Amino acid sequence: MPSRLSFPCDMHALRALCHDLPAPDMAADTAITRHDSQLTKPPGSLGQLEALARWAGQWQRTDRPRAERVDIIVFAGNHGVTAQGVTPWPTDVTRQMVTNFRNGGAAINQIARVASARLHVIEVMDLHPTADFTQAPAMDEATFLQAVTTGMRAVRPGTDLLCLGEMGIGNTTPAAAMAAALFGGGGAKWAGRGTGLDEAGVRHKAQVIDRALARHAAGLTDPLAIAHHVGGHELAAIMGAAIAARYLDIPVLVDGYICTAALAPLHLLHPQGLAHTWLAHCSAEGGHAHLARELGMRPLLDLGLRLGEGSGAGLAIPLVRAAIGCLCGMATFAQAEVSARE
């Protein structure tokens, strides 16, 4: 790995990594813009595809980006806060779904196959649950750093495009708690139905979040403190993977609510902390649209998904490939002997 990327030994080192993120390659961006202006199409006619191609080139640091080696990483974790009745599903389902992923039986397996992407599933902290954050911090600093490092180590140098996903029964609760702690508004603004709560269940979930925020108020001093007090193992790993991708020149497609919440601390720690990421889709989970607006992220897709697993990120892979294909494969006006605009 490049010498600039190191695995943090303490919270100070992690903050330093987050504050010193590499900038995009604007020379590559200029070259892509110049080349795009010569292609056989009206300027700007491919809309967001043109922006996607520039984004890929900026972070791969080339005017000829690629999307051949694509990885989908699903980080799995369990949560002690499920003891508070925030989900109708037993926590055993997390491990059972990990087995399903490895046996090829989940939705993300089919999406990865269709997208010709490599799927990796990682059980963070061996699926031992976090503490119930209504009673204690979800993680101490050492455990949080271990989970972040797990995510960092999962990213393979040489990957062209990384898709981040998750699996964890109850994990919309820490996602909502992180959003509430980072941006305000309380549990009622950020809690949603998750994997099937009714209206009473959503109200209870919001109350659980508010109790946790009140309990930890004195410790929620910065974005990383929020992440280890009310986050989760897989959320920490997702953030670690995004940090590593930034240092390894890999653009990142972000999945739904949980992944977006996991990365939100980077936005507050660095003004361009999420510039190497692109939100793949807007989840049907109510808080996701609010969170995307807070982060200034514009989703590529809006398909009513609320599955997780990296499913939305996987579905966006062909869009990135199409954007890069148009940039690198289209003829210029001169090559095609087509008259250019006067």
Give the radius of gyration.
20 Å
Name the average pLDDT.
Answer: 96
Count the E strands: 5
Query: What is the structural class?
Result: alpha/beta
Largest sheet: 5 strands, parallel
Strand order of the largest sheet: 2-1-3-4-5
Order of helices and strands: HHHEHHEHEHHHHHEHEHHH
Helical residues, percent? 40-55%
- How would you describe the shape? globular
What is the tally of helical segments?
15
Give the DSSP E fraction (strand runs of 2 or more residues). Answer: 5-15%
Weakly predicted, low-confidence segments: none
Note the gap between the termini: 48 Å
Q: What does this 3D model show about the protein?
A:
- This protein is α/β, with parallel strands linked by helices and 342 residues long.
- It contains 15 helices and 5 strands.
- It has helices at residues 11-19, 26-36, 48-60, 92-102, 107-114, 141-153, 172-183, 186-190, 199-215, 223-230, 233-247, 257-269, 286-295, 311-329, 333-336, and strands spanning 70-76, 118-123, 161-167, 252-254, 277-279.
- The chain has a 5-stranded parallel beta sheet, sandwiched between helices.
- The protein is globular and about 70 Å long.
In short:
With 342 residues, the protein is α/β, with parallel strands linked by helices.
Write the layout of secondary structure elements.
Elements: H1 11-19, H2 26-36, H3 48-60, E1 70-76, H4 92-102, H5 107-114, E2 118-123, H6 141-153, E3 161-167, H7 172-183, H8 186-190, H9 199-215, H10 223-230, H11 233-247, E4 252-254, H12 257-269, E5 277-279, H13 286-295, H14 311-329, H15 333-336
Parallel strand pairs: 1-2, 1-3, 3-4, 4-5
